[in-house]
């Protein structure tokens, strides 16, 4: 009788751990994007889901550079001259029907440092602790790995 209780407890704990791990396999949350050149975290981006569509905005700068851009002078749309902190840089990303972990679906990502907007694909990795973010125009792309903020 005692062994059955212990077994049920272990199974329950394992199911909870698996469930919370699966719940993290989504881009929803707060992420630290990493500078391609220095390898250091640049900013925190919060990604939310509303009506099965993801959007993300810069919530915090992690740079110590006093000369870093504060606004997006090069943006071509409604974000022109907006503050980068608070700016929505991810728009219209949907879960791709070909994979339960690929988020693409016509979404776009903006690089506020140069004002360029790219098509985007996002894939959670390593139990949802990392997010592979690929921005592309045609056959040309750039991939970053973002880290989930704790």
Shape by Cα distribution:
globular
| Structural classification | mainly beta
Number of helices: 1
Proportion of residues in extended strands? 35-45%
Strand line-up of the largest beta sheet = 1-2-3-4-6-7-8-9
Report helical residue fraction: 10-25%
Order of helices and strands: HEEEEEEEEE
> Cα-atom Rg, whole angstroms?
18 Å
> What's the total number of strands?
9
Distance between the termini: 40 Å
Uncertain residue ranges: 7-23
What does the largest sheet look like?
A: 8 strands, antiparallel, barrel
Nearest-integer average pLDDT: 86
Give a verbal description of the structure:
The structure is a single chain. The chain is mainly beta and 150 residues long. 15% of the residues lie in helices and 44% in strands. It contains one helix and nine strands. The protein has one helix at residues 2-23; strands spanning 29-34, 41-50, 53-61, 88-95, 103-104, 108-111, 116-125, 130-137, 140-148. The chain has an eight-stranded antiparallel barrel. The longest helix has 22 residues, at 2-23. It is globular and about 40 Å long. The N and C termini lie far apart (40 Å).
């Amino acid at each position: 009788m005692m062994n059955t209780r212990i077994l049920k407890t272990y199974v329950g704990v394992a199911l909870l751990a698996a469930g919370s791990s699966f719940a993290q396999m989504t881009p929803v949350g707060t992420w630290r994007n990493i500078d391609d050149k220095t390898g250091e975290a640049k900013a925190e981006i919060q990604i939310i889901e509303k009506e099965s569509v993801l959007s993300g905005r810069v919530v915090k700068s992690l740079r110590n550079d006093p000369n870093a851009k504060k606004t997006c002078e090069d943006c071509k749309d409604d974000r022109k001259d907006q503050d980068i902190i608070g700016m929505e840089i991810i728009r219209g990303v949907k879960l791709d029907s070909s994979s339960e972990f690929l988020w693409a679906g016509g979404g776009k990502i903006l690089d506020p440092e140069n004002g360029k907007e790219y098509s985007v694909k996002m894939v959670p990795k390593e139990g949802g602790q990392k997010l592979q973010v690929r921005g592309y125009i045609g056959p040309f792309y750039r991939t970053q790995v973002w880290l989930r903020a704790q």
